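pinned: reference chain
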Amino acid sequence: MEKWYRVLLTSVALLAALFTVSTQGTVFALGTTGHVDTSQAVQADTGCTGYGCDNTDPVQTGCDDSSAYVASSEPLYLSNQTPGVDQPVGEVDNWYSPDCSTNWAVAVLHGPNCGSECNLTARVCRPDNQTPGYYCADPFSSNSSNWVWSNQAYAPTPTCATAYGFFDNGIYSGSASARAC
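pinned: its structure tokens
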């Protein structure tokens, strides 16, 4: 009887080690000690998946978590500036979330806020099989901040997405784009 009892306990421990535990959308491996091993996380808990992430806010969905990064960045020059000679007035960053497979644009002005006399806009687009051949998330604009981010577009690797930044102060304007694949 004792031999069967040990075989049963060993079998239960082995089965427990092979199964996974799901906690709030994140899958963790269950170690042989019975403790949840959070170093084996394979998916983050986000508020959207796939094309359901299109035109959603990366902050509200949690896609802007610690795994998100700037995939590409380009300087933003005014129309009266010479790239490579003058200092850029800002930049456009193409952010990517590996957890959500999404991109979004962040347009940033260096220096103080330009106030109500200017407008800063960020937008992101990806190729699409529909007419006109691309999908763009809604842009966001601000005339009260020196940075703004767009809604996001689902663009799983190897889909390329392009982030756009636009600036207009009533006298000069400028734009930049940053592509990431």
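why pinned: The domain at 50-180 is CATH 2.60.40 (Immunoglobulin-like). The chain has two domains: 2-40, 50-180.
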